[in-house]
Amino acid sequence: MTDDGSTTGDPHVFASGGKTDRHDYMAARKFGAQTRDLALAYHWTGKNVYARKAVEFIKHWAINPETAMRPSPVNRISVDNKWGVPASVEINITIPNFIYAAALVNNHPAWEEEEHKFESWTRTMLQELEDWAEKPYGNPVIGYNTNMRGSYIQHRAAAATYLNDGNALQKAVTWYKKHAIYEVNDDGSLPLELKRDEALDYSLNALQAFTTMAEVARHNGINLYDWEGPHEYGGEKPVLEAIADYTAPYIVSPDEWPHAGGGGRSQEYLDNGAIYEALYSQYRKEIYLEAIRAMNRPLRSGDYTGPLTATHANLFEL
User: Fold this and answer.
1) What is the C-alpha separation between 206 and 201, in angstroms, rounded?
2) In this structure, how many other beta carbons lie within 10 angstroms of the beta carbon of residue 168?
3) What is the pLDDT of residue 181?
4) Distance between CA 249 and CA 288 in Å, rounded?
5) DSSP 187-203
6) Which of 6, 138, 237, 256 is deepest in the core (most CB within 10 A)?
7) Helix axes 146-162, 199-218, angle to 10 degrees
8) What is the pLDDT of residues 148-177, one digit of tens each?
9) Where, residue-wise, is CATH 1.50.10.100 in the chain?
């Protein structure tokens, strides 16, 4: 997967191709999801054919000299800063699929002693993700929407976990608590997302990212599901629960959404809404189950969370 829409002239730069034509991003998103699903198939069945193909895809994306992406989250606008966003949300959505896949096929013979190259690639990416947060434009106050901050920090946490870097994960959790949910109303609505044309899709996209961050943390013994929230938030529930509570009724009845972008169930809507499988497993709220039923199981996301009914449905029954 090399890019044919890069403004830099570098074929190893991953660029979305612009707002009106995101062909490179859509292809990369599909490729990453296929890689993750192959690794899950290996995890569930033990069949090596799935592991070999997953490793082949990871090598194509990150290791092979002819096709590898340069490991940087800021590729898309390294020359053309017309969107004013210095870290690519497309990259932060795409790359975790390869990280999760690599973790599932860890130490498989198909790596042919090249697994360390992907680890090095991920280490470089993680370092750039951390460096971005320390630069002036890493301040989330400056034009970075809530869903973008969420996708950024779940990518960073996934990379830290894959590398077994507890210090990097703790720094990611600290950044999440300080910056990720930068603006949230007491009712759980996200004011920056409500201003957008597809406000429901983007609110759900942010929820998917925050919940993924909570899942990564949970697997590392850190509870973000019960975190009260930033000091700006004055609600009575944990902030993640409040955000989930706000959007759940509108999955059941999208026509009642009072902001822009309601009235139907787009593919993006279903991709993001599938995260209620994980949320229901944690909070066990009836409205979350109603939302799941409204979307019709089995649910899966085209993003990094994948086949959520298969991986996260009713975990409390296990």
Assistant:
1) 9
2) 20
3) 85
4) 8
5) TS--HHHHTSTTHHHHH
6) 6
7) 20
8) 889 999 999 999 999 999 999 999 999 999
9) 1-138, 148-318
207 to 114, 144, 180: CA distances (angstroms): 35, 16, 11
The fold for domain 148-318 equals Glycosyltransferase (1.50.10)
Return contacts of 142-145, CB within 8 angstroms, 24+ apart: 143/84, 143/85, 144/85, 145/192, 145/193, 145/196, 145/202, 145/206
Look at residue 81 in the predicted model and tell me its pLDDT.
Answer: 46
Residue 92: which of 168, 12, 25 has the closest Cα?
25
**Structure tokens of 172?**
């990611």
- In the numeric block, the tokens 């990379």 are attached to 159
Q: Which fold has domain 1-138?
A: Glycosyltransferase (1.50.10)
What's the pLDDT score for residue 265?
A: 59
**Amino acid (1-letter code) at residue 150:** G
pLDDT higher than 90, residue 272: no
Show the tokens assigned to 294.
């409204």
